[in-house]
Amino acid sequence: LRYLAVEDRLVLSVALSPEAEFGVAMTRRLTRNLVAALAKLASERSQAAAAAGAASQMHDRILDFEHSQSVAKAVTEGNMRDERRDMPFAVPPRLIRDVNLVSRNDGSLALVFENDEQALTLAVSPDRIHMVIETFVQIAERAGWDFPPVAAWLDVSGRASGVTGKVLN
User: Fold this and answer.
1) The whole model's pTM is what?
2) How far apart are the C-alpha atoms of 156 and 150, rounded to whole Å?
3) Cα 158 to chain centroid, rounded
4) What is the mean pLDDT of residues 1-15?
């Protein structure tokens, strides 16, 4: 994931070979709606875990703390990978029209970025949703996009309802 200043778009890409990559572009509005929907989904899952019992809630908190600590350590030590690829695209990135959020039985999530001709699927494990949200927010911040605080979305997100299997435009 990176920002293309020329187009004022985020590009999600994958290397096809050492010489070329495939990418799809996202607008500011679509990215904001995606982050809001992911934050709402993470909040709902957190509330469901809390209702499931204190033991699972404590387990989740410990995992979240360990994950946060490892991310913070990687950032402070300069080990976190900051994508700065500059290889050409096999085809120019086309603008994403829809993002489908598909929940799977194992708790993972598939983000399917689609336009009229292409699709790119990003599989997200249940314990990495927060990292995906944070990544989108950090890139948007670098781009100078004025997103509201994520914490506000986690508390009240009336923008995205019924996330599973829905399309964001």
Assistant:
1) 0.69
2) 10
3) 19
4) 90
